[in-house]
Amino acid sequence: MKNKFLLLLFLFFLSQPIMADNLNIQSSSITIDKKRKLTIFKEGVVAIDAKKNILKSNYAEYNKELKLLKSLGETSIQTSEGFFISGNNIIFDNKNNILKSDEDVTIQDLENNNIYLQGFEYSINNNFFRSTGEIKVIDEKKNVFNFSQIFIDEKKREIINWIFKTL
Fold first, then answer.
1. Strand positions, DSSP E, 2-125
2. Is the Cα dihedral 33, 88, 122, 128 positive or negative?
3. How far apart are CA 111 and CA 97, in angstroms?
4. Whether the predicted model's global pTM rises above the 0.90 cut
């Protein structure tokens, strides 16, 4: 009887989303690594913050102490303003309210422009992208622009500042 109760209790908590400091995280499989102080999410990971940014991945680790959700592997994000980010190993920093990655990512804006970045930082509070490095923008007419620095204001739907890359 006691085992059935514990099993039912475990299944109840497994099916419920976890609230992690304004971060709602759902997954098919949730485990805890006490040694590394991490909650590990596998299969169908979906994390939604208070601003309605949505992260999807198949694997993520959450460190409650640091308020960091790290996706490992292929990850997609839909921002609250409707931009799509796709890449690998993206960090959801819930303490500093930023999304970031040091790896290659692609951003698709609402005008169907594709922006290829070697890493980025996104301010959740200001809806603002920032990136330096090899940057390529391909607009909906297939025009190609190369930059070494770019700032994108999602709310205004414009590139605020850029530095063209010299060839």
1. 18-19, 23-26, 29-33, 38-49, 54-63, 68-71, 74-78, 84-88, 91-93, 98-108, 114-123
2. negative
3. 26
4. no
Q: Which residues contact 145 (CB under 8 A, 6 or more apart)?
A: 136, 137, 138, 139, 164
Query: Which residues on adjacent β-strands are paired with residue 123?
Result: 98, 128
Residue 24 in tokens? 């709602």
Round to whole Å and give the CA distance between 147 and 133. 8
Closest CA to 155 of 118, 119, 123: 123
Helix (H, G, I), strand (E, B) or coil at 20: coil
pLDDT per residue as tens digits for the range 150-165: 999 998 888 876 666 6
Contact 131, 123 (CB under 8 A): no
Radius of gyration of the chain (CA): 18
pLDDT of 25 above 90: yes
Structure tokens at 52: 């309605």
pLDDT digits (tens, 9 = 90+) for 40-62: 999 999 999 999 999 999 999 99
Counts for the chain of helices (H) and strands (E), in that order: 1, 14
Percent of the chain with pLDDT over 90: 72
Task: Annotate 51-76 with b (16+ C-beta within 10 A) or e (fewer).
Answer: eebebbbbbbbbbeeebbbbbeeebb
